[in-house]
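Hi R.,

Quick one: here's the Deoxyribodipyrimidine photo-lyase sequence you asked about.
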Amino acid sequence: MLVHWHRADLRATDNLGLSKATGEDDVLPVFVFDDEVLAHASPNRVAYMLDALSSLREWYRERDADLCLLRGDPSAVLPDCCAEHDANGVFWNRGYSGLASERDEAVKAALSDEGVGYADFHDALHHEPGSITTNDGDPYSVYTYFWKKWRDREKEPAYDAPDADSLVGAPGEFDDLPTPDDLGFEETDANVEPAGHDAARDRLDRFCESAIYEYDERRDYPWEAKTSKLSAHLKWGTVGVREVYEATEDAMADAPDEDARESVEEFQAQLAWREFYTHVLEFNPEVVTQNYKEYQEGIDWREDDDELQAWKDGETGFPIVDAGMRQLREEAWMHNRVRMVVASFLTKDLMLDWRHGYDHFREHLADHDTANDNGGWQWAASTGTDAQPYFRIFNPWSQQERYDENAEYITEYVPELAGVDAETIHEWHELGVDERGRLAPDYPAPICDHGERREAALAMFKRARGEE
Ligand SMILES: Cc1cc2nc3c(=O)[nH]c(=O)nc-3n(C[C@H](O)[C@H](O)[C@H](O)COP(=O)(O)OP(=O)(O)OC[C@H]3O[C@@H](n4cnc5c(N)ncnc54)[C@H](O)[C@@H]3O)c2cc1C
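And here's the predicted structure, written out as tokens:
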């Protein structure tokens, strides 16, 4: 018998490691609550993970098997599990963070010591880090070139879910799933999206029916919600990348015209961003805490706890920023356009270090992924690969007018402004104190002046570049 060790691949369909294992022998699926990994988690992500585990376990139980749930250091509990169930090998899919690699090495050594075999597979991306390089064999630091090679490279087809008769089961330490409290976490207050493969497949199918054909044109408008919302599914592996890509290729084949085909390709290009940032992290693990792009004199970020707190609480008086930050707290997710706006606001208007923003996102996003989150933050802060140039600073007022013209997104998350017309919301910074107080007494005045801060941010970056 073999063990398949589920990690960030909480699904049975299109799972390479699981398919390889069931192709060789009977398989006991296992998940390990690893305290060292949990130390980096948050209530929202634990809630999402438990929901995904519940769905996966149900899938196995419907097939007279079971997901064996264990707790502890995988390099200790996996060899014990193999001894108990007479398994002679452990299969898993690779992770690409530093923590995952260190843990995998320890597990391999422990299994070898006990004479248990192992095999790990490349499953989470279409193209493994290091497989797409410049013609000189170096990793890409510019996305466009990476994307062209990624797009043209052949993709593997999706793997079917294994047959029930190749699966066995044991409940392990948990007949019932542990609660967040059992794992040392509070219950989340956020309305976290349903996890699990059925939920992912449902989202994917609905997205590929029509929204994918308008993706290129509509994906930037947060009030429309025209993006796929697959990010947490891709992060936790409740859907496989091959399965997603195949659905987009089917949509491509059914596309009514050239515009629709271009739109499908634009969506595929976002899937490639995810892989690009994973490649960047793999070859530059230091970016988790350091700027990718060095500035000669270093960036002299401001320190301001009150402004940082106002940003976290969605109380800055900049409606689009506050709407985004409140969406994050309420739903453990935020629309991409608004992520860019709030990240630019933190780093260029408040001039606070991107690491404060990254930490806050890591705490709240159900889809938090080290590579993507870091890539997004360093892009906004003008410190990353292929980043926003330092002199291109989003104006939050024109961003909200352009992408939320009727203030529908803003008023959904900032109810204090519900009775105020959109035009006035877009001029909030130009109104007098009395008028703001009359229109929305509980909503704050802007905490800073965008024009002044823009000049100050440009000066901060010029000093960092040694130009002033
Ligand atoms: C400051 C900042 C932080 C971010 N943090 C994360 C994060 O922790 N986890 C995360 O998955 N994405 C992150 N992103 C990227 C992007 O905002 C989300 O992937 C997207 O909003 C998720 O919604 P969706 O699934 O509807 O996206 P869609 O537009 O439907 O895109 C499909 C998929 O492509 C991938 N993708 C899309 N855009 C990007 C991108 N810019 N970079 C990398 N992958 C992308 C995601 O897996 C996404 O699910 C961040 C962006 C910024 C600006």
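The pocket of flavin-adenine dinucleotide is lined by residues 219, 227-231, 234-235, 270-271, 273-274, 277, 336, 339-340, 343, 361, 365, 367-369, 372-373, 375-377, 380 (CB under 6 Å).

Cheers,
M.
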